[in-house]
Amino acid sequence: MTKTFIQDLVNDMTLDEKLAQLTQLGPHYWGLDDTVDLTGPFKELNIKPQVMESIGSVLNGIGARNVIEQQTRHLQTSRQKIPLLFMADVIHGYRTILPIPLAMGSSFDLEACERFAEIAAKESAAAGIHVTFSPMTDLVRDPRWGRVMETSGEDPYLNARVTESMVRGYQGKDLKEKGRIAACVKHFAGYGAPEGGREYNTVDMSSGVLREFYLPAYKAAVDAGVAMVMAAFNTIDRIPASGNSELLRGILREEWGFNGVTIADFNSVNELIPHGAAIDGREAAEKSLAAGLDIEMMSTHYLNHGAALVEEGKLDIALIDEAVIRVLELKDALGLFDNPFKDADPLVDEAPKPSAEHLQAARELGASSVVLLKNDNDALPLKRGMKIGLAGPFATSIHVLGGWAGTEKDPAVSLYTGISQKTSAENIFTAMTGELGSMLEGVFDVEDEIEDAYQQLQDCDVILAAVGENQQDTGEGGSKSNLRLSANQEKLIWRLKDTGKKIVTIVFSGRPLELKPVLDASDALLQAWFLGTESGNSLADVLFGDYNPSGRLSMSFPYSVGQIPVYYNAYQTGRPYDPMYPNVRYVTRYLDCPNDPLFCFGYGLSYSKFAYNSFNVEAADRVVASIEVENTSDIAGKETVQLYIHDVSASVVRPVKELKGFQQITLAPHEKQVVSFEITREMLMFYGKDDQLVFEPGEYDIMIGRNSGDHCTQRIWIG
Ligand code: BGC
User: Is 89 touching ligand 1 by the criterion CB < 6 Å?
Assistant: First the structure.
C-alpha cells in the first residue's frame, strides 16, 4: 500500500477511532454482549461496545480458526475495514516447544538461535499470529528473578548477538513472506534489574550502567529492524518506562532512529497511577502518549481520555496521528490489508502432531543448550547396557516444557522416555519419581522416599538424579529468595552417593540454582534447563554421547544466594581481592564465601579436552589476537573460544573484563586450529562521563580462553 493510502485512512478517522486503533485488548472482549450491563473488568475499563469495532489489536488471541473467525467478524463491522493485528507471547516456540531462551543463550550458537525463531515464526504464523512479544532481551544478573529464563543472560554482547539472530529468524527479509511474523523486543528498558530480584520491584541504575550493559541488546534489535518495542513495567531514573519520554522518544526514536511501533506492557499505562507517576487515568494517558508509547495494552486510558486531552489542548493530535500511522504501517508491512488472515491455516495449526522436521530441530537445539558443569571419573557419557538408576522429581516428568510454553498441546518427552530410546528398558530402574509441585500451590518439597530409592538403586552401575524446580516457579511472578534445591532433593543426592556408584545430577531449572550443596555428591552435573517438547531426547543424546555437550553458561551460577548479584563483567574496585593473599581483610570480599561464582559466565565442559597454546597479540596496522586450540582427546567436539578485553585505565571505571567476540569451532580428535580475532576500535569504545561513546588510547588486557574465568592474557598499548 502507498503512504497516501494510510494517510487517507487516518484523515478519514474520528478521534475515537484513532484511539481505539492504539488500544490492545484480549480476545474475550470481542464477545462482549452490548445488551448486558457492563460488569467486572469491562466496567472497570469503561468499554463501550461500539468501540470494539475500531480496536487495533488483540492480545494472545491464538489458533488459526479463532483468528480467522474473529478477523472476519471484525472486518464485517469495522467501518474502514482495518484488519486487527494479532499479537501473542510466543516465547520459545508455539507448537513445537523449544528450549527456554536462557538455554538458547547458553548454546552460544547464533545460527541455532535464528533457527529457533524461524520455527516459532512458522508455527505461530500458521496459528494466525502476526507479532510475537519476543525476543525478551533484558540483561539479567539476579537469578532470584523468575524471568531470567526468558532472556539470554548476563552479557550485553551475547544478548545483542542472540537478539539480532532471533529478530532475523522471526522477521526474515520481508514480513509479508509466508511463515514470518513481526518481532517485539522487550522490555524496554532495564526490566531485568529489579532490586532484590523481586518481580516488578524498583529498577535504579546510573545512566552509564544503563547504556553500557542494559541498552545494547535492545539497540541491536532496533539495528536488526525489529518491528516493535515493548516498554517495561519498571522505572528508569524514577520515571516509569511506559511514560518515559527520554527513553521512548529520546533514546529509542531520536538517538537510535527507531520508527516502528511501541507498545505498553500489560496494563502498564494504568500502572503509572500506583507508581505515583500519574494521579489518574487521564494523566497516565497524557504522559504515555506524550512519551511516544503507541499502543496501550489491556487498559483503556487512551480510549477514555485521549479525546478530552486533545480538546483541552494538553495533547497535540499530531502525536496521536503519528502513532496511528505507525500501527497502520505495520499492518501494511505484514500485508494485512490485502490478506487479513496472513498465514492462518487451520489444517497446519490443528495437525495432530508437530512437524517431524521441527521436532528434530528442537531436539538438536535442546542438546546444544545443555551445559556440562562437572564430569569427574568419566561419569559421562553413559554406555549402553549399563544398569541405570533414575530417581528424582524430573525422572519421569513430562512437565518440563518450561514456562510460557505456547499451546502445550503436546507433552514433553520425559527423561525416562528419552533414555529408554537409547537402552533397553530392562536396564533402567526408577525410584522416588514423585513430581515436585509448585510453590504457588504451597508445595515446597517432594515426598521423602529416599531410603526406598537407596535400596532400589544401589545395585545400578550409575545413578541419575533428576532434580530441579517446578517450571511454574520460574518466569513472570516467579521470584525466589532461596535458590537451593528442596531439602529432600539434596538429601536424595547425598544418600544415593552412599551407594558408592557414580552419581549424575541433572538439574531442570529456569535459572541458575545454588548447586554447591550437591556438588561434591555429584560425579557429573548437567544443567538441563527446560528444553521443551523434545527435552528427554535432547538429554539422552547428551547423556549417551550421541551429542557431545557444547553449551556454555550464559549466566553465572552463584556459589551462594548471598553473593547475588554475581556476574563476570563487574566494575573494578579500589580494593580488589587478590587470591594470592586470601587473608587480607580490607579488600572487597566475603568472609564466608568466595567472590567468584561456582560456575562463571561462559563455562561449560565437553567430552573432548581442549588445550589452548601459543597465545599471541599483534599490534601493527591492525590489532589481532590469536590462539591455537587443540582437541587433545579422541572425541570430536565443539569449543567456544571467547575473547574478552579490559581497559586498564580510563576516564571512567571499566569492567574487569568484557566479552567482545566468540567463535565456535568443531575439532576432530587431535585436530588443532588457530583462532584469531581482530580487535577493532569499536570494541574498545565505551560510554564516557557525558553518555557519549568514546575511544581512549591506552593499555588494554586482551584475553582469549575457554570462559570468563579461564583465559590467557596479554597487555598491550592501543593508540
Ligand atoms: C509480560 C509481557 C507479556 C505481556 C503480554 C506481561 O505481563 O510482562 O512480557 O508480553 O504480559 O502477555
Answer: yes
Distance CA 194, CA 200 (A): 7
Helix ranges (DSSP H) in 228-270: 245
Q: How far apart are CA 548 and CA 666, in angstroms?
A: 11
Q: Confidence band (pLDDT; 50, 70, 90) for 36?
A: very low
Q: Residue 2 Cα, ligand 1 centroid: separation in angstroms?
A: 33
Most distant pair of Cα atoms in the chain: their distance = 81
Other C-beta atoms closer than 10 Å to the C-beta of 578 total 10
**HEC assignment per residue over 501-553:** CEEEEEEECCCCCECHHHHCCCCEEEECCCCCCCHHHHHHHHHCCCCCCCCCC
In a mutational test of the pocket of ligand 1, which residue from 266, 269, 298 has the highest number of ligand atoms less than 8 Å from its CB?
266
- Closest atom, ligand 1, to C-alpha of 136: 9
* AA letter at 149: M
Q: Any idea which residue has 527435552 for its cell? A: 535
Residue 239, beta-bridge partner list: 236
**Predicted pLDDT of residue 47:** 75
- 69 pLDDT band, cuts 50/70/90, is very high
Give the pLDDT band (50/70/90) at residue 42: low
The residue whose C-alpha atom lies closest to atom 2 belonging to ligand 1 is: 265
Q: Confirm or reject: Cβ of 186 under 6 Å from ligand 1.
A: yes
Mean pLDDT of the chain: 96
- The one-letter amino acid code at 557 reads F
d(CA 260, CA 92): 23
Active-site residue set: 265
